[in-house]
Amino acid sequence: MSDLVSEPDHSEWWVSFLKGGVAILPLSIAVLPWGILAGSMAIETGLTPAEGLGMSGIIFAGATQLAVMGMIKAGAGVMSILISAFFIASQHLLYGLTLRERIAPLPLRWRLILGFLLTDELFALIGKHSAAEFNRWYALGVGLFFYIFWLLSTLAGILAATQIENLGSYGLDFSIAATFIVIVVPMIKTFRPLFAC
């Protein structure tokens, strides 16, 4: 078993937690412009800084958040926003089903925490490991470090939006495609037999 994912000795849980934080660092840096975009869009939409940061803290799904803010700005109804948000974030249901075997044996508090922290990035780093290799502390490190980084990048966007006019015109949305590429390319290499028909 890999030392990154095997269940640690009780005295070494923090090592696995920190390894998770280090593992997510490249994806956290890649998502920085996306978080800045989310923060600036929140201000452009008319949300207060606290509401914008709160939205990032509660929704914690970048594409869903950006779509919701666009719909709020366009004056869409609450039901339209909720239905759209559900469908945009529906891949998380598939991620959850894929990880079920690994997460189900954990206590409820762990399942709730890891379920909330489940993002494309977390799934990319832990989805490839078997149930025997799964390490909850490593997963928590990945998810929590990414969550904190997302909130800080959103806060940076909120602060930048109050200082820089029309921040959205600087091409920050390219980070969405860049992050997707960083996540998908290694997974395609791993799942090569699926495409060898």
TrEMBL record:
Main location: membrane
Transmembrane segments: 20-43, 55-88, 108-126, 138-161, 167-188
One GO-annotated biological process of the protein: L-valine transmembrane transport
Bilayer topology: Multi-pass membrane protein
Domain of life, source organism: Bacteria
PANTHER family: INNER MEMBRANE PROTEIN YGAZ
GO CC annotation terms, alphabetical: plasma membrane
Family according to the record: Belongs to the AzlC family.
Locations listed in the record: Cell membrane
InterPro entries: Brnchd-chn_aa_trnsp_permease
Protein name per Swiss-Prot or TrEMBL: Inner membrane protein YgaZ
Pfam families referenced in this protein's UniProt entry, alphabetically: AzlC
Source organism (scientific name): Budvicia aquatica
Keywords recorded for this protein, A-Z: Cell membrane, Membrane, Transmembrane, Transmembrane helix, Transport
